[in-house]
Amino acid sequence: MKNDYMVVAEGLVKDYGGFRAVDGVGFKINRGELFSLLGPNGAGKTTTIKMLSTLLKPTSGEAWIASYSIVREAGMVRRVIGLVPQDLTADDEMSGWDNVYIQARLYGLPPGEARERTREVLEYLDLMEAARRRVATYSGGMRRKLEIAMSLVHSPKVLFLDEPTLGLDVHSRRSLWRYIEDLKRGGVTILLTTHYMEEAEILSDRVAIIDRGRIVAEGTADELKARVKGETIYIELKDPAYIEPLTQTLRVKLGLEPSVVEGRVSLRVDRADTMLPELAKALNGFPVKSISISRATLEDVFIELTGRTLTGGEEPFDPFKYRRMIRGVR
Ligand SMILES: Nc1ncnc2c1ncn2[C@@H]1O[C@H](COP(=O)(O)OP(=O)(O)OP(=O)(O)O)[C@@H](O)[C@H]1O
């Protein structure tokens, strides 16, 4: 019954030497659906995409894309998929047009059709004006759009987007989301990886939360968030030495079970507004830096499942490293 789905993954495993990066990942994506793998750095998202797009052979497990096996029919799989990898692939010294045109020819389109498709996808992504310019002059957002144009030139049925907005500013990120939403409306089945919960929430029909090579939860964003009841109050202190006494006070005075998530005391409550007066009293004498309240987010779901945050332990964003990456300089 693989035909009902555009992507079916079953028990995918990838070992790098003795290290298991992907540990039995399985999911099914319906035709025209946008499915996200949401997880922190190192969770195994890129490795999963690489296996599905036939760039890496699974250690074990299987997957079918448009009912072609990634293990036995890799050539057919490549014809029906488009891939926007994390490490950008466009040639900096060539124009945007040439990058897309060459890609079209590599996919076997004859020259006339390749020109037509190149124009179509560049127009679609609003890159026609910059098409004759060297890619080296493009902004980060334009480069991402060019990569998407390159991945679409052969009209794939399934599109893999690996952290498509990584390192982009908020404006470029939102603009890229509109193109992705548009592609989905056009019927393309999309698998997207991200560690931005907002991105997963806004774009996806369904989300799988992945951590340490395993899918720990799957469903619509609403279904996942419904697992976490109520609201969360976060208390940040000026001096971390007070964290332990504060958690003790909250336990004793308010009967709550606080937890500490990345230096902030977090309290899960049914309703934050009615709790605040009592909380204010309990906080008297503590060096409070900030108090914030949030309704359940996908991040809370991740914290509930793993005890860590999605961005926990992430290196701070290094623009120089990112620039080197997109220029292909290692
Ligand atoms: N070629 C490799 N050799 C050894 N270990 C690897 C290799 N590629 C990835 N890993 C490890 O496998 C794990 C999963 O990596 P992967 O890149 O799939 O994660 P990810 O969720 O995509 O994170 P990121 O967004 O940072 O790429 C990580 O611990 C990573 O260090």
From TrEMBL:
<keyword id="KW-1278">Translocase</keyword>
<dbReference type="InterPro" id="IPR005894">
    <property type="entry name" value="DrrA"/>
</dbReference>
<keyword id="KW-1003">Cell membrane</keyword>
<dbReference type="InterPro" id="IPR003593">
    <property type="entry name" value="AAA+_ATPase"/>
</dbReference>
<dbReference type="GO" id="GO:0043215">
    <property type="term" value="P:daunorubicin transport"/>
</dbReference>
<dbReference type="InterPro" id="IPR027417">
    <property type="entry name" value="P-loop_NTPase"/>
</dbReference>
<dbReference type="GO" id="GO:0016887">
    <property type="term" value="F:ATP hydrolysis activity"/>
</dbReference>
<dbReference type="GO" id="GO:0005886">
    <property type="term" value="C:plasma membrane"/>
</dbReference>
<keyword id="KW-0472">Membrane</keyword>
<dbReference type="InterPro" id="IPR003439">
    <property type="entry name" value="ABC_transporter-like_ATP-bd"/>
</dbReference>
<keyword id="KW-0813">Transport</keyword>
<protein>
    <submittedName>
        <fullName>ABC transporter ATP-binding protein</fullName>
    </submittedName>
</protein>
<keyword id="KW-0067">ATP-binding</keyword>
<dbReference type="GO" id="GO:0005524">
    <property type="term" value="F:ATP binding"/>
</dbReference>
<dbReference type="Pfam" id="PF00005">
    <property type="entry name" value="ABC_tran"/>
</dbReference>
<keyword id="KW-0547">Nucleotide-binding</keyword>
<dbReference type="InterPro" id="IPR025302">
    <property type="entry name" value="DrrA1/2-like_C"/>
</dbReference>
<dbReference type="InterPro" id="IPR017871">
    <property type="entry name" value="ABC_transporter-like_CS"/>
</dbReference>
<dbReference type="Pfam" id="PF13732">
    <property type="entry name" value="DrrA1-3_C"/>
</dbReference>
<dbReference type="GO" id="GO:1900753">
    <property type="term" value="P:doxorubicin transport"/>
</dbReference>
<dbReference type="InterPro" id="IPR050763">
    <property type="entry name" value="ABC_transporter_ATP-binding"/>
</dbReference>
<comment type="similarity">
    <text>Belongs to the ABC transporter superfamily. Drug exporter-1 (DrugE1) (TC 3.A.1.105) family.</text>
</comment>
<feature type="domain" description="ABC transporter">
    <location>
        <begin position="7"/>
        <end position="237"/>
    </location>
</feature>
